Amino acid sequence: MYTKVAKKGGVGFNNSMFKIKNGLLAPARIVKSPNYDDRGDEDDISLIVIHNISLPPNEFGGKGIEQLFTNTLDKTKHPFYEEIHELRVSSHLLIRRDGEIVQFVPFHKRAWHAGVSQYLGRDVCNDFSIGIEMEGTDFEPFEEIQYKTLNDVIFALLKNYPTLNSSAITGHENIAPERKTDPGPYFNWDKLSLMLKAKLPARCEK
User: Fold this and answer.
1) Is residue 38 part of a domain?
2) How many structural domains compose the chain?
3) Which of 133, 135, 143, 173 is catalytic?
4) Residue 4 pLDDT exceeds 60
5) Residue 15 banded pLDDT, cuts 50, 70, 90
6) Residue 67 maps to which CATH number?
7) Is 133 a catalytic residue?
8) Distance between CA 112 and CA 177 in Å, rounded?
9) For labeling, which of 13, 22, 116, 158 is most exposed (least CB within 10 Å)?
10) Strands 29-30, 101-103: parallel, antiparallel or unpaired by DSSP?
11) Average pLDDT over residues 108-124
């Protein structure tokens, strides 16, 4: 499926069906989130951050994630929703357990996914990063199709945003180690490293 057409950061780009236009990824399903704003510099996109999420906790396939990111979460539907329904958060992408991609925020806009965070001495990682949520938890493996989809997504991002590099990919737990644990111990960084020919996760301390 992949044909090497260019080299950057040790990765051979491919001719996959994934395309980006106006900050939107095809074939992602678009669900617009209001939880974003402008980047200080739209050309400064230099980090990819991997997260995990499941709503309700440890359950897959429902509407909770999309409702959270669109501020429509019904606090009466689950006890945990009482704690989070007022959060105003988002991510650029969600990769579901079956490999489906949902996009909430255009890549050139700033999604609210990282919170208080630091990468190589830079604070506020939302300013310069792309956030990708993997539907999953800290307590069980991710699906093979999710890794394949993530790989294809990253290839498309590297091809379209010259400031990105395959070595600048890390987890939420790495940029916010005192607050976050995702994507968690079951995320297979070795698998992603092999796919991208890079040593991951990226080192975050300066």
Assistant:
1) no
2) 1
3) 133
4) no
5) very low
6) 3.40.80.10
7) yes
8) 17
9) 22
10) parallel
11) 97
